[in-house]
Design brief:
The structure is a single chain. By secondary structure, this protein is α/β, with parallel strands linked by helices. It has 9 helices and 10 strands. It has one domain: Aldolase class I (TIM Barrel, Alpha-Beta Barrel), CATH 3.20.20.70. The strands form 2 sheets. It has an 8-stranded parallel barrel with strand order 1-2-5-6-7-8-9-10, surrounded by 6 helices. Strands 3-4 form a two-stranded antiparallel sheet. Helix 1 packs parallel to helix 9, helix 2 packs across helix 3 and helix 6 runs parallel beside helix 7.
Length: 265
């Protein structure tokens, strides 16, 4: 078990794989900037960091050494904030590359898109073997689902024991490219498809665009959790640029009604 065996109520996603400082000057690129953003996000109410790392050119990377450096710096600067790494391909990495970074880093948690790790329907022995290895190694996998069809396919793999339960899920509302802003009603299809799962999942939502807060509050109301930050949205509910990632977390916590957001819901 790790500190990410259960998802936190709010996870901070401060940068993602594609945005740069040309998109927003406060978007963290370096490890030092990411740690600083994580510290501020933690103080605002985020319980964990969803981490991307960049190389010296600012390009998305799955370098195990960079992830290890980030994890060490997080343990020093924000020791109570666990780190979930990502295997996002971003058009650069194969499923084998994605598996390799998780095996090399052995993080407290990892976020993996089903459509990237297991791109083709049908049998995939290497993917299935990897998911079972991660479960045996005690590394919680949060399965990123981009559509209700992804959720249906995941349920089929779980029923066939190709992917082990229990499950952590991330429902992605909206799209980065081509741009499609999220709306709260997009959650319905995911929740309907997830009914096919034998065990209720531990799930969260992320949302692209200016309705990010409204989408995340809808998820919390429905029993889910939230991933928030500049990876998905750079603006506040008023459509104006948010000053930084911590402001996005604060907007969510200020609109939240219930227990302290860092606690499990």
């Amino acid at each position: 078990m790790t500190r990410l065996t259960s998802l936190p109520a709010i996870m901070l996603a401060p940068n993602g794989a594609r945005k740069t400082k040309a998109d927003h000057p406060a978007l963290p690129i370096t490890i030092a900037e990411t740690v600083t953003a994580a510290r501020a996000g933690y103080d605002a109410g985020a319980g964990a960091l969803h981490a991307h790392v960049r190389d010296t050119q600012g390009i998305h990377s799955l370098d195990p050494g960079l992830y290890r450096e980030l994890i060490v710096e997080m343990a020093r600067a924000v020791p109570d904030m666990p780190v979930q790494i990502t295997t996002e391909a971003a058009g650069r990495y194969s499923p084998a590359d994605q598996r390799a970074v998780v095996r090399a880093v052995q993080p407290e948690g990892v976020s993996i898109a089903l459509s990237e790790m297991w791109p083709d329907p049908g049998s995939d022995r290497e993917a299935s073997r990897f998911y079972h290895w991660a479960a045996e190694a005690g590394i919680p996998v949060q399965h990123i689902l981009y559509s209700a069809a992804d959720a249906t396919r995941l349920a089929q793999y779980v029923a066939a024991d190709a992917i082990p339960a229990p499950l952590q899920l991330l429902y992605v509302l909206g799209r980065y490219h081509p741009p499609r802003p999220a709306t709260p009603d997009m959650l319905t299809g995911f929740l309907t498809a997830a009914r096919a799962l034998a065990e209720p999942p531990d799930w969260a939502v992320c949302a692209f665009g200016p309705q990010e807060t409204a989408c995340l509050l809808a998820a919390i109301k429905a029993g889910g959790k939230a991933r928030i930050g500049f990876e998905n949205n750079l603006t506040g509910p008023d459509g104006q640029p948010a000053p930084d990632n911590a402001a996005r977390v604060a907007d969510l916590t200020h609109n939240f009604r219930g227990p302290a957001p860092r606690l499990s819901l």
